[in-house]
Amino acid sequence: MATTQVETVQTGADKAKIAAVVVLVLASVAGFYLLAKQGAVVQWAVLLLGLVLAVGVFLLSEPGRRFVGFAREAWREVKKVVWPSRKEAVQMTAYVFAFVVIMALFLWMTDKTLEWVLYDLVLGWRKS
Fold this sequence. Notes:
- Helices cover 78% and strands 0% of the residues.
- The protein has 4 helices and no strands.
């Protein structure tokens, strides 16, 4: 049985930073609605400024640094992917569409055959 280790150790400073992020987000949303009389430009400026500050504080915390590290490693892995050429992508798409059409015809024929067998032969009902 594999054991998984979960890191839950956080310093008081990191908890305070995360709390500050929550406060900044809530304050920026509240400011957006409270400054409705000031005009749309002021509203959006307060909202965007608050969100940018919240992201900045988050990135300075340990969870933020781990997130940035994860994003960098994920991008590095995406670069390793061998993407199909345009010709291969078009061919595979055509194969999928052809298979879907064939399956649709097969299921339609199966449905009509069962309908004929059950309603016409077994039950003797005639459609009008």
